[in-house]
Design goal:
This protein is of the alpha/beta class. Helix content is 41%, strand content 13%. It has 10 helices and 5 strands. The two termini are 34 Å apart. The N terminus and C terminus are likely disordered.
């Protein structure tokens, strides 16, 4: 399977019927065979939330088929239960050669916009890696300020195991932080809805007003403008 660096051009259409049953190592294997060893899968969590940071994670898996067996069941974090995500998180921490998580705050999201803030979180995740990557696999994202070859994939967290592992690490890390914010800012229910625009969250906003961790550019949007993905 040829793998080339992705540019800012429009991403090609992808036939969703071609999605594998589980994320696999096809893209990683193609790069390994070309001599590229350290491949970082990158994914984010929390882009559509009303409160809290956006999180991104980077995961480098070891060369070879072993991680596909050890991380069986790891997939797009939105398709997993909280228990499954936490169990997968522990296995990823053991199996991965390196992993890192980065955040961009609600203030940075309001200042920069959600896409630049997501890229900032991804850059911070890369900076947290203990091993420098030689190639990036990303889920429908490109990092123009990172001078590394990059492959952006439609439904990347459903196709690449490295990206799926990053999806789990980003989601579980952000969820843990929102549970901490629930203690710091009680009444909003952050531990339950993780900052997303549920009805209970919006009622709390009407009752309490915005907190220091709410995204002012998001929190006042109409109800039908913010997706809910727990």
């Amino acid at each position: 399977m040829p793998v080339a660096a992705f540019t800012t051009a429009r991403m090609p259409a992808f036939d969703l019927s071609l999605l594998p049953p589980d994320p696999d190592l096809s893209f990683e294997q193609a790069l390994w065979e070309c001599g590229t060893i350290t491949i970082a899968g990158i994914d984010e969590a929390g882009r559509g939330a009303l409160a809290g940071p956006v999180a991104a994670a980077a995961v480098i898996l070891p060369v070879g088929p072993g991680s596909a067996i050890q991380l069986k069941g790891t997939r797009d974090s939105k398709q997993m239960t909280p228990h499954q995500r936490e169990e997968a998180r522990q296995r990823i921490r053991t199996v991965a050669l390196a992993w890192g998580v980065g955040f961009a705050s609600a203030e940075e999201i309001d200042s920069l916009g959600i896409l630049p803030a997501t890229r900032l979180a991804a850059s911070r995740a890369l900076g947290a890696l203990t091993i420098p990557p030689a190639h990036l696999l990303l889920d429908y994202l490109f990092l123009p300020d990172i001078p590394l070859p990059q492959t952006a994939l439609v439904k990347g967290d459903c196709r690449s195991l490295s990206i799926a592992a990053a999806s789990v690490m980003a989601k579980t890390s952000r969820d843990a932080l929102l549970c901490e914010l629930d203690l710091r800012y009680p009444g909003y229910g952050f531990a339950a809805h993780k900052g997303y625009g549920t009805q209970a969250h919006r009622l709390a906003l009407e009752r309490l007003g915005v907190s220091p961790v709410h995204r002012l550019s998001f929190a006042l949007q109409p109800r039908n403008k913010v997706p809910i993905t727990l």
